[in-house]
Amino acid sequence: MRPESKRLLFNLLGNQVVWFIAVIAAGRGHAWPGMLAAAVFVCLHLWSVARPADEVRLVMLALLCGLVIDGVASAQGWVVYRAATFGGSLAPPWILALWASLAVTLNTGMRALQSRLWAGVLLGGIGGPLAYLAAARGWQAAEFAMPAWRGWTWLATAWALALPTLLWAARRLAARTAVR
């Protein structure tokens, strides 16, 4: 297997492992396993890339997206997260860990989507809420308040905007670095 293929496989599988650890642990009321798994995954990724500073910028932007998207969902009561802190009025740490983990897939596992932002809109708008549904139904890591359409609409809309924005930012950072 070529080194690029190994890196791609590690990136995609690593992100999925982090997701499962975070969601299963949150369903049991623990935030720290997901946070630890994401920290290890993100650090290993940063150690292996040529431009770690650009990756850190993407992580910070993704964390901002998570703070807004999941913070609004939580504060409005549309989504109730397990293992939440601050009285459930902010995005829980384990969700932010998932956003950081997602960020380090933008230049590796999701690189092909950088030139197909419309695919990012679809993947974000459909895949984002489905991941929450899996976390809620499979491991009780979250619960949608009734009427559930409010939470679903918010997540679908926000993810349909956030994922292509993150992909665009990743492409911009890569282009900026290539020009130097």
From TrEMBL:
Keywords, alphabetical: Membrane, Transmembrane, Transmembrane helix
Organism, as annotated: Pseudoxanthomonas japonensis
Q: Which Pfam families does the protein's record reference?
A: DUF2878
Q: Which domain of life is it from?
A: Bacteria
Q: Which residue windows are transmembrane per the record?
A: 7-25, 31-49, 61-81, 93-110, 117-139, 151-170
Query: Can you name this protein?
Result: DUF2878 domain-containing protein
